[in-house]
Amino acid sequence: MKYIYFVTEGPTDQIVIQGLVEQWLDGEDFIPRHIQPPSSAYAEDLDSNLSEGWKGVLAWCAGKRTGGPAGRDEALALADCLIIHTDADVATDTDFKAPAFNGPSVPAVKKCDWVRNHLSALLGGNHPNVVFCVPAQDMEAWVLCALYPDVAEANAPIECHPEPCALLAVQQTPRLVRNKDGRLRKETSKYRDSLPRIVTGWPNCTAGDDPHCPEAARFETEAKRVLLR
């Protein structure tokens, strides 16, 4: 039985990533350990709860919670696969790393590599069971492409679009993101309900020699390499 640990910015990211893992394992049983965000069942009631979002992921990678359940040491030692997710849009925030990323926005790989390298350094280098999931610009770019490939094509390259979440908010069925008083809010229950469609549409992101979402294809390749070994 495989133990798969998930360190993600938020619950909707966790839903999508675990759904993809289930698809790639093709029915093989596994035990999920949701250790970030701290609202996850495996991480609740910890004395050293970290914040949600990318700041919680960053703190976890930096060793702010090393021991005990959901600690970094346990995950690195026991996980058959440890998936660490952070959206690439953090690269321009000096709170993530200073100085911030100042390279080209196209192609997305430059920014994604910059985020990956920083997370890897915080973990103390490469680990064979670690898989980085760094969507560009964010997870909503991949979800949009999976569900609405024509919209993604009209805004290509979708991984370099500055506001994929705003594009997703104007799509009516399913309504995964809502604009409430000028703020975009993700509907966790709608993500969960729409997961079969997202997984079915995933090839819209990754298929072909020149995929719509190269970073999605990269994540799939690297995840399968660890999951299926």
Give a description of the structure.
The protein is of the alpha/beta class and 229 residues long. The protein has one domain (2-227). It contains ten helices and six strands. It has helices spanning 11-25, 53-61, 72-78, 109-122, 139-147, 149-154, 164-169, 188-201, 203-206, 214-227, and strands spanning 2-7, 30-36, 81-85, 130-133, 177-180, 183-186. It has a four-stranded parallel beta sheet with strand order 2-1-3-4, with helices on both faces. A hairpin with a 2-residue loop joins strand 5 (177-180) and strand 6 (183-186). Helix 1 (11-25) runs parallel beside helix 8. The longest helix has 15 residues, at 11-25. The radius of gyration is 17 Å and the shape is globular. The mean pLDDT is 93.
Tell me the structural class: alpha/beta
Mean pLDDT: 93
Identify low-pLDDT runs: none
Over the alpha carbons, how many angstroms does the gyration radius reach? Answer: 17 Å
Please give the share of residues in helix.
Answer: 40-55%
The biggest sheet amounts to:
4 strands, parallel
**End-to-end CA span:** 13 Å
The spatial strand order of the largest sheet comes to: 2-1-3-4
Shape, principal axes of CA atoms: globular
Strand content: 5-15%
Number of strands: 6
The domain tally reads 1
Number of helices: 10
The sequence of SSEs as H and E is EHEHHEHEHHHEEHHH
